[in-house]
Write a structure and sequence with these properties.
Order of helices and strands: EEHEEEEEHHHHHHHH
CATH superfamily of the largest domain: Alpha-helical ferredoxin
Strand content: 5-15%
CATH class of the largest domain: Mainly Alpha
Mean pLDDT: 95
Number of helices: 9
CATH architecture of the largest domain: Orthogonal Bundle
Distance between the termini: 65 Å
Largest sheet: 5 strands, mixed
Length: about 240
């Protein structure tokens, strides 16, 4: 059975003066993921290693981290595809570290709430049926609703690195999902949040978010569509 080395970021801000890296050797059967390797380390070598994980199927987004310099889901990262030795595992960049590979996501979710990620409707609902949406209108949401809120895109964004008040690509993609829902009537309520220097206009079209997204989504394109929408609403 092949063995791989893992160089893992370790830091407890309550007890450590500075971060460090610790190396481990792990046997990795064919098909092993980085999450499998982390589990093996925690369960058999070092129970103090701390990281998030839940579904193991690329759905919950809990295990997003930086692996060999790129943001990805540990449960999807196949060890055999990672040629660097040792494999370097770090927390998502630009988020405060709680411990080891666990970062504080509170600010990330606060930004999400700012864009009002829910349907805003003022027209009374029909009494005899659901709010109708045609297949064509529903298709407008493809590429937006699939976001799993892992934070990989926002962590990879240089605009967010420079401006922690920037909403970030994940929140803006969520804003697109509702603003371009033909049933939504909340564009004006979201304008103040989107149309400012910490909102849409902080995005400089760098495309890091596109490369980082484990679901293959394109927040940069969605942000461009939001910019056009905001301008059309104003003029």
């Amino acid at each position: 059975m092949p063995t791989r080395r893992f160089k893992i970021f370790r830091y407890n801000p309550h007890t450590d003066e500075r971060p460090r890296y610790q190396e481990y050797e792990v046997q990795v059967p064919t098909g092993s993921t980085v999450l499998d390797a982390l589990n093996e380390i925690k369960w058999t070598q070092d129970g103090t290693l701390t990281y998030r994980r839940s579904c193991r199927h690329g759905i919950c987004g809990s295990c997003a981290m930086t692996i060999n310099g790129a943001n990805m889901l540990a449960c999807e990262a196949q060890v055999h595809t990672l040629k660097r030795d040792p494999i370097v595992v770090e927390p998502l960049r630009s988020f405060p570290v709680i411990k080891d590979l666990v970062v504080d996501m509170d600010g990330f979710f606060d930004k999400l709430l700012l864009v009002k990620p829910y349907l805003i409707v003022k027209t009374p609902p029909p009494t005899d049926k659901e709010r109708y949406q045609s297949p064509e209108d529903r298709k407008l949401l493809d590429g937006a609703y699939e976001c799993i809120l892992c934070g990989a895109c926002t962590s990879s964004c240089p605009s967010f690195w420079a401006d922690k008040e920037f909403l970030g690509p994940a929140a803006l993609l969520k804003a697109y999902r509702f603003i371009f829902d033909t049933r939504d009537e909340g564009v004006q309520e979201r304008l103040d949040v989107l149309d400012n220097k910490h909102g849409l206009w902080r995005c400089h079209t760098i495309f890091n978010c596109v490369e980082a997204c484990p679901k293959g989504l394109n927040p940069t394109w969605a942000i461009g569509e939001l910019k056009k929408k905001v301008i059309s609403e104003k003029f």
